[in-house]
Fold this sequence. Notes:
The protein contains 18 helices and 15 strands. It has helices at 2-10, 75-84, 110-117, 131-137, 141-155, 171-179, 202-208, 213-219, 235-259, 282-294, 320-337, 353-359, 370-383, 385-402, 433-441, 443-448, 459-468, 470-490, and strands at residues 28-30, 33-40, 43-50, 59-63, 66-71, 98-102, 123-130, 162-168, 184-188, 224-226, 229-231, 268-272, 301-303, 340-343, 364-368. The two termini are 49 Å apart.
Amino acid sequence: MSNIIHFIKELPSLNNVDQYGVYPLSLNHFGHLHVFMIHEGDQDFLIATGIGSNQFQGELFQEGEYSYVKAPLNNNNANTLRDLFPFTKPIPVLSKLRSFGVGDRLGIATEGHIRVFKDYDAYPILAQQSIRELALTNRTYKDVLDAASFSVFRDGYKKGFGADGDHLKKPAEVEMALNLGFTMITLDCSDFIRNDVSNMSKDQVNKECILEEDIKNRYLTHDFEVEGMKISFDEEELKRNVLVYGKAIDFAVQIYTDYFADGKTDANFEISIDETATPTTPTQHYFVANELTLRGIKLDTMAPRFCGEFQKGVDYIGDIKQFEEELKIHAAIARHYGYKLSIHSGSDKFSIFSLIGKHTRGHFHVKTAGTNWLEAMRAVAATNPKLYREIHKYALSMFEEAKKFYHVTTDLTKIADVDTLKDNELVDLFKQNDARQLIHITYGFILNAKNTDDSFRFKTKLYDLWREQREVYAEMLNSHIGKHLELLYSGFEK
């Protein structure tokens, strides 16, 4: 470690940082305390020297008059870092004009994401995971937030980022995420949304739902107009809306009252009603937004389920003309009630991004997740074809089990046999929707596969590879996520 001593002797001149294994953009000061990050072997560490360095937990080194703490990248040191350097702490970003969620299931994608957002004024949600994803990747919300904080410190990203407790369904999950410092909650109301109502007859609906007079007067006595577009209800439709969304609205009110109302937190609040069997019509969107507003709920975003299909990791499937017509009304409703429209499963929806940018007038929240995993696996295909072939075959064997957790229309017969492909042709699999979805939905099985001795079959090899090929992966993400932003921005004038 004497090379670090030599570097410390040069402080504050900060010359020739690379030769000491220092990440040059990580050099930061707090009074007479100097903190930076180094890479040593296959690990990164924080180095703290000067007054206050004992705030970090780690190994103390002393050489003459110089001392420093070599601190591992753990939760205790992440908390200290966030206390000392506010740019490493997440902030609420949904109040900004544009925000973009980039789920990092592996804890290694932020380096590439940061490269994208240095070029765009959208604010990234760098820490974003669902409870299901945590279970499949054996991570915790502490891990997710810490990985983002260490990455922005290492790479000198100081514009600000958000942290999203994504698709949370239970009060205890919401409370946990807020207590850890997450600055956005995506409340998944799907457990309280009825999917059977669309198949009910008119008589069944009338039998099950008796409208109260106040709700009749609210919706049946007049039409509504939003930015020149008319929204109207008939009695049967109103009853169906009450049956489908009534309990979900009650649940959202409960969560907001318990955790957000009266300044309990300054975190952002998003409602997700997209995990349903049928699309959210503009009339249903208006009904939910109006009922929440009347009950005092202040939303930052809402995610309806749009017409067509937003399947994982592939482009939009459906009638683009119909999507645009309904998007106009959805975006207008969001503006009318003062929140941003949120587009879930936004990964790779290239054919409609410019429309989203246009009709939201550049005021949007788009959420991506699995596409970052796909880019990681594309990096594997490009740099270690043998390992990729083995993983691909394993994914095929686990596909039916993985399909239980996702709605996809994957046709395995359309995927080329990897044994017939040359090494340099493997990356082209990621241009084919069925192959993308195969790898997309089997990530949990791939990461958790074990050998007979209980060691990981793929996970250790994968992380070793991604560490060696970190520049390849970062640039793939920069290009791929950058394409998302480029198309979104093409729809509006900044």
